[in-house]
Design goal:
Essential component of the vacuolar proton pump (V-ATPase), a multimeric enzyme that catalyzes the translocation of protons across the membranes. Required for assembly and activity of the V-ATPase. GO terms for molecular function: ATPase binding; proton-transporting ATPase activity, rotational mechanism. It is found in: Membrane. The chain is mainly α. It folds into two domains: 50 residues, no CATH class; 48 residues, no CATH class. The chain has five helices and four strands; from the N terminus they run H-H-H-H-E-E-E-E-H. The strands form two sheets. The protein has a two-stranded antiparallel sheet. It has a two-stranded antiparallel ribbon with strand order 3-4. Helix 1 packs antiparallel against helix 4. The protein starts with a helix and ends with a helix.
Length: 115
């Protein structure tokens, strides 16, 4: 939703000079006076979405996960299975490049972790 807010703010900035000269109603004048705040709110909403690997409440898998379940690739994951790291602990490959590892979206403590 932040992308829509960001685009609306960019539209307000794009038409800034025309809106300065026009006679605006109360609502439009309020939007015009808050145009910079609207752009920044949209930008940081998109940024937060990337940090949490989340877009429209759907988890993103941008860089793959650093964890796998036994039997994950052949569809035989049993309930209560434990995830294991794909790389050695503290190596360059074990660090997720940006944001949160998408494996957090399937954990039982997902809500506690994200909040």
């Amino acid at each position: 939703h932040g992308l829509f807010l960001f685009c609306a703010g960019i539209y307000l900035l794009w038409n800034e000079k025309a809106n300065d000269k026009a006679k605006l109603g109360e609502m439009a004048a309020g939007l015009h006076s808050g145009r910079y705040m609207i752009v920044m709110m949209g930008f940081f909403a998109v940024y937060a979405g990337f940090i949490y690997n989340d877009m429209f409440s759907l988890g993103l898998n941008l860089f793959g996960s650093r964890w796998v379940f036994d039997g994950q690739y052949n569809g035989e994951v049993e309930e209560g299975a434990v995830a294991v790291q794909t790389a050695e602990y503290a190596s360059a490959e074990s660090v997720y490049p940006f944001g949160l590892d998408p494996m957090w979206h399937v954990t039982s403590n997902e809500l506690l972790f994200f909040n």
